[in-house]
Amino acid sequence: MARISIPTTARLPSSLRVAPSNPAVSKILNHLSRGSLLSIVLDWLDENNQALAAPYLRAAEDEDDGLDDLNPPAQSLEELQELYADLQARKGSKREVLDRIVEGDWRHGLSLYQLAMADLQYLYDHPLSQKWSAYRIMPLKPAARDGGGDEHTPPLVDNESLMVPRFHPSTFLNALQAQVLPDVKAHYNFDRHRSLPLLLLRIFILDSPYNTSLGIAAPKPAPTTFDTSRTVYIAFPDASPHVFISKPQTVGASAAAGESKSLRTLIVEGIPKALSRPRRRFTLKSTSLATRNLEEMVERRGAQRTNSAAGGWGVYADETKKESPLDTVLPTPPLSEEEEGGGERKRKKRARALSPAARREERAVKRARLVAKARFGESARVDDGKGVERVDVVIEDAFPEDEPTGKSGRRERLRDGEREGEGEEEEDDDSQWQRRSKGGRRSRADIDLEREREIEADRQREAEGGQWRPNVRLTFRGSHVFAGLRQLVEHGIIDGERMPGWLTGEEGVTVGAVRNGRIRGYKGSGV
Amino acid sequence: MASLDEEIESLQARASALKSKLQIQTSTLLAAPSTRKLLTPPSSTLTTDDTTPLRQKLLARSAIQRAHNQQCLYRACAGLTLFRAQDPDPSAVDGGAILGLRVEIVSRAKFLRPYYVLLNRPYPESAYLRVHRHTIPACIPLAGLAARWLPPPKGEAKQDLARFSRVLRREVVRYHHRLGVVADLRKAAGLGGRKGRAAGEGGEDELEAGAVPAGGKLVDITPADAEAKQISIEWANGCAGRLVMGDDGEIIKLVAVGEGGRDREAVRELLGGAATVEDVVKRLASG
User: Fold this and answer.
1) Would you give the end-to-end CA distance of chain B in angstroms?
2) If you classify domain A337-438+463-520 with CATH, what class do you get?
3) Considering only CB atoms, which chain A residues are within 8 Å of B115?
4) Residues of B in contact with A315 (CB under 8 A)
5) Of A271, A384, B176, B253, which alpha carbon lies 20 to 30 A from A226's?
6) What InterPro entries does this protein map onto (chain B) (predicted)?
7) CB contact under 8 A, A518 and B68
8) Do B242 and B188 share a domain, yes or no?
9) What pLDDT, in 10s, does the model give residues B231-275?
C-alpha cells in the first residue's frame, strides 16, 4: 500500500482494494442472492482472476495465523474452491457466506473489480433494476474554418452525413477519462452482456482526487468517501449508432439528488466527446425512449430490422417469414384462416349450432382478435419480455367543439371511450376517419379536398391561437403497457380499428406529444 | 408405443411435404398458358354452361397466380420494386397511403428476406415523400441518404426517389457483400463459421491441429465495426492487425502490430500485392 496519496488524473485501478467494513461493500454484496454470491465467489477464485481478486491465504510457515478465527484462512486456492463448491451444494444462509467473504477470505479488502463483478451479477439477476434511456449518436458538421470567433456557436447536427459512428472500447475509455474532471475518480469495467448483443460499461464514480487505497480508506473526520460515489452503466449495442445510459443509483448513504444528476450530466456530456475523433464530431440526441427493459431497448434501438418497424409493421421485419421471389406459391394473406390453423374452422362449424346472439358475439370476439393482430402484429404479447413499464403522452389537440364535421361520430366515440382522456385524442381526424369508414377508394379529388381542409385548419389554428386546447396528459403504467392495450383490444374494450397508431407502441417512444392523432416531436420513427 | 409415435410423426411430416408439393403443382398448373387456354371458353361457342361458377373461380385464381408470378419475376430481376400499402392508423397522414420500397438482397445464391422502406406523404402542400417506417439495419446511414435525396419541401431542394432508391440499394448490397467477403476470408483461412468460434477453445485447438497451410497462421478474422468496413485479423504469433476496406472492397490500409511494433512482414505475406479483399481470399484459398 502506498504510504502517501498524490492527486492524479489517472483512473482507479481495478486491483484497488476496498476495506470490507466499508458500507458500500456490504451493500453491494447484500443485494445478491446466496446462489449468485457463491457463483461469483467461485469466479473470483478462478485462476485467471487471481491478479485482481486474490483471497487472503495463510502462508504455509506460520501455522497459527488466525487459527483461533471464526473463519480461518485457507492455505491454498484449491482448498477454497472446494469449500465454496461445498457451500454451493448444501443449503444454508446467505449470512454465513457473506461473513466468510467479508471477515474470512477477503478480510484484506475486496478489489474494485470484484465489486464491479458483484454489481453486474445483480444486474443479470434483476434485469429490470436499472432505468435506461436511449440516445442516438449524431454526427456534427465540421467546424467552419474561418475561425472568426464562432467558437461559442455550437456545431450543427449534420443530417446529410453518411458516416456511421465507430466505437472502440479502449480508445473510448482513454478519451472518456480525459473528459472526467481531475477531482473525480472513476473505475471502469467492461463486460459483455450474457444474452443480449451489448457491451456494458460500468462506471463507478468516487469523489476523491486520489487513486490509492488511502484515498478510499476512511479519512477520520469525514465518513467514507463512498457516500457520494455512484454507479452509471453505459450499454453499447452492437452495430448500432445508439447508446443506452442508466440513471445513476446511490450506493451507501443518500446523496443530494442534484449532485448525482450533475455527475450523470458530466458523463453524458463526456460520452460524445470521447466518441469523437479529430474532424469527426458526434453528439448525443435523446430518442424519447426510457425503460427498464434492456431487451426492448435492443429491439427498438439495436442493429436489427425491428428498429422502426414496430407494432403492426413488424410483418415487414419478421426474419422468420420466407419471401423469396423464386417461390411461386401464392402467399397466404397475413390474417387469413389458413394461417390461423385448423382449429378455427372447427369452431366455425360449431358456431352454426349456436343461437344468433351467441354467434354474433363469437364473430365479434374473433374480429376483435383479428383486429388486434392487424394492429399489433406479433408484438406486444404479454410473455414476450419486451415490455415498457411506463408511457407518458401529452395530447395537444384542440377541443373538438369547433370542428364542423363528424359530430355524430365523436359522440359515438365518447360513448365507447373507456378511459379518461382517450376520447380526445383523435378529434381532428374525425372527418378523415368518417370518410374512410364509408368504404371504397377515395378519388384524387377527395384527397386534394382533404388536404385543402387540413391546410385551412392549420391556418385557422395559427390565426386564432385562442382555441381551447385542454391539457390532457396520459400516463400508462404496468409491467408491459402495450401488451395490456393489446389485451383490451382483443377483448373488444378498445375499438381496435379506430385506435390511434401510437397506442400500439409502433413509434417506439415512451415520451411523446400527440397532435392530430400522431406523435409529434420525435418525427416519426422513420428517420 | 414409441414406434407408433414415430410412425405418426413420419406420416405427418410426409403429409405436410405432400401438401406443399401439391401447392407448388397447383401454382404451376394455374399459371401455365395451356391451362388458361383450357379454362377460357372459346369465343365461338357461347354456351351457358361455360360460365359455371367453378370455372369463374378458377379463372380468377389463375389471374391472381399470374399476377403473383409477374411480381416475382420483377422482384427477381429488378432487385428494387415498389408496392402500395395501407397504414392501419386511422389518423395516419394522407389517408394512410403508403408507398413501399422493396430491396432484394442475394447472398450465397439465396434471396434473403428483402428490406423495406415505407414512405408516406405528410407534407400538406406538396406530394413530397418522407420515410415513415423501414427495416434497414442501423449500420446503413438511411437518415443521411433521406436528407440528401428526399429533403422536406423547404427551399429549392428537389426530391429524387429513383436516385434515393438506387443509392440505398447500393449501400445495402455493399454491406452484404462486405459481410460475405469477411465470411469468405474466414473460410479461406480455415476458420470455422461463427458458431464454431462461439464453441470456444476446443474448436480452436482443432483448427490448429487441422493445419490449413495458408490459413494456419491466422487465428481470427472478424468484422470490427458496425458497417463491416474494418476487419480485425489475429495471427497465431500474437500479432494483431486491422484491415480497412473501401466501398468497393479495395484494401485501403492494413496494419499489423506484433510484439516488437509494426509487423510489415506479416502484412506483406498476407497481401502479396493484392488490391482488393477478394484477391486476398483467392490467395489464401490457393494456398
Assistant:
1) 55
2) alpha beta
3) 305
4) none
5) A271
6) CENP-O
7) no
8) yes
9) 888 888 888 888 888 888 888 888 888 887 888 888 888 888 788
Distances from the Cα of A466 to the Cαs of A144, A399, A462, in angstroms? 43, 11, 9
Q: Is B233 among the domain residues?
A: yes
Residues 73-102 of B with CB under 8 A from A: 73, 75-76, 87-96
A/B interface, count of CB pairs below 8 Å: 174
- Which residues span the domain enclosing B197? 180-286
Do both B199 and B276 map to the same domain?
Answer: yes
DSSP designation for A346? H
Specify the CATH number of the domain A128-141+157-303. 3.30.310
User: Is B31 an 8 Å CB contact of chain A?
Assistant: yes
Burial A233-248 (b: 16+ CB within 10 A, else e): bbbbbbbbbbbbbbeb
Q: Which of A13, A499, A301 has the alpha carbon at shortest distance from B87?
A: A499
Nearest to A524 among B23, B132, B140 (CB): B132
Q: What is the ipTM of this complex?
A: 0.77
Q: Tell me the per-residue pLDDT of B20-58, one tens digit each, with 9 for 90 and over.
A: 899 888 888 888 888 888 877 666 555 555 567 888 888
Give the integer Cα–Cα distance in Å for A177 and A184.
Answer: 10
Q: What is the pLDDT of residue A227?
A: 46
Q: Does B184 share its domain with B282?
A: yes
B285 touches chain A (CB under 8 A): no
Q: Map residue A341 onto helix, strand or coil.
A: coil
Cβ-count burial of B173 within 10 angstroms (0-12 exposed, 13-18 middle, 19+ buried)? middle
Q: Which residues of B touch A238 (CB under 8 A)?
A: 226
pLDDT at residue B134 above 80? yes
Q: Which residues of A touch B147 (CB under 8 A)?
A: 159-160, 527
Residues 139-168 of B with CB under 8 A from A: 139-148
